Task: structure prediction
Amino acid sequence: MKSTYYLISGLLFMSAAIHAQSSCFPQQNAVNVNPDTHLVLKFDSAPIIGNKGFIRVFEEGSNRQVDCLDLSIPAGPTTSQGNTGVYTSVPYEYKATNYTNANTVPGTPSGVNKRDTSNYQLNIIGHFTDAFHFYPVIVHGNTATIYLHNNLLEYGKKYYVTIDKGVVNARKFNGFSKKSAWRFSTKESGPKADVHKFVVSADGYGDFNTVQGALDYIPDFIPATITPAKEENGGWKVFVKNGDYEEIVYFRNKRYVTIEGESRDGVHIHYANNEVFNPHPADIKTNELQGTFPSRRAAFMSDNGFCISLVNLTVQTDLQGQAEGLLMMGEGNMLKNVHIIGSGDALQINGSTYLENCTIDGGGDTVLGRGPAFFKECTLSSYGAFMWIRNTNKNHGNVFVNCTFVGKGKDALIARSPINKGKGYPYAESVLINCKLDSIPAVGWAVEGDTTNVHFWEYNSQAMSGKPIDNSLRHPASQQLDKEKDAKIIELYSNPTYVLGFGF
Result:
C-alpha cells in the first residue's frame, strides 16, 4: 500500500511539473512522433529565453545523450564580417553524401575554404557540412519552439528531454529534470522506399513535420528521364499542408522533385536569415562563377538541382539586409504560383528557371543572378532596381512576358548593370514583352561600361491603365523593339524554350 502511494505521488509530481506550462508538443509520452519534430512549449504568458544552461535529449534505456543545445553560445553574427577571399571555380564538392550532425562535426569545410572557428550555433542542413547558424529557441507570443540539430533523432526510438532551470523563463516553469523529463517515442519507420509522395504537416499528422525532413529523405542524383518531375517517371512529390514552417531549407543534388503547397498563402516557409547571420566563408567568394554555391543567406535554397518545381507556397526571409527569400541553383527548374519575399535581393536564379503567376517582393536587385529565367504573368515590386542580371554570352538573362512591375521608390529602375569591383556585365540581358509598369523612373534602365552587346529591350510596355508609356527619356543603351522590324526577336523571346534552352 505504501509503495502504491509513493508511485501515485511520483506520477502526480511528474504531471504537475509537465503541465505547469499550458501545453507541450509532442505531448508527454506521445508515440509515433516524426524524428524531424521541433519541441514546442506553450505558456499562459510570454516566456523569456536565458543565455545559459542546456537543453538535452537522451535515448531512453541507454541514457545516451543524443543532442545538446548550449544556450550560452550566440546564434550567429550580428555585424558584417567582410570578405577578403578570392573567387574559385569549384569551392564545394557536388557528390552524393550522407553527412549529418550524427556523423560529422558542423563547420567541417566541404571544399577549399578554411574552417570557421568563430563560436556560434552550427547546424548541418541538407548534408552541407560547412553548416548554418541557427536559433536554438525561437519565441513568438506565448510559444517557445526548440530547434534540435537536424537528423539526430531516429525512427523506432524512445527519448526524454531535460531543460535546465533558467533556459526558458516562464511562470511556474522550472524546466525538466531527469526525474520529471519530457518523454516521447518516434515512429517505427519512415515511408517505404517505393513511396514517392510525402505529406509534410507542421501538426505532426504527416510523414514529416518539416519541409527539410522530407527533402532529406529523398536520395541524391535520382536517375530519370529528362522531363518535369512526375511520380510516374521516377520523380518525387512533397505535398506541404497549410501551416507555418519556420526553418532554413537547403537541399542539393536533388532531381525531379516537386514541392507543392496546399495553398499559396496558407503555406508559409520562412526564417530570419541574411548575409550577416549566415555569410559567405571569409576566405572565398563564390557568387560570380557558374556551378558554385553562392550564398547561405536565403530562407529557402535549392543547390545543384535538376527539374525542381515549387508550386503554391510562400517563401520569405524575416531579416533586413541582403537576404533572398529563395535561391535556385541548377537547371530545368519551375516555379508556379509562388510568393517570394526578400530584403534587398528577393530571388536569386543561377540556371534555367521558368516562373509563372509568381509574386516577387524585394527591396532592390529584387531578381539577382546569372539566369536564364523566363517570367510569365508574374508581378514584381521593388524599392530599388528590379534586377541586376549577371549573365554572360553563354546563356540568356531575364525575360518577362505579360508581367507587372510596381515601383515602390524613386530608384525602382527596371534593371541595372553596374561595374562591380572592376568587373562589368557586357552581355547583360533583360527583355520585357507586353508588360505593365507602375511608378518606374522615366530613364528606365541603368548600365555602365561597354553596352555594345547589352540587351535592355522593351516591347509594348504599358501603364497600368493599358495605355502605352512615354519612353522618350529611356537610357540610350536600352532599345524599344518594333512590332514589324523586330517581329522575329519578339517571337523568339516569347518562347520559354528559346530563352531557357529547356522544354517547358
Remarks:
- Residues 197-500 form a domain with the Pectate Lyase C-like fold (CATH 2.160.20.10).
- Residues 2-18 form the longest helix (17 residues).
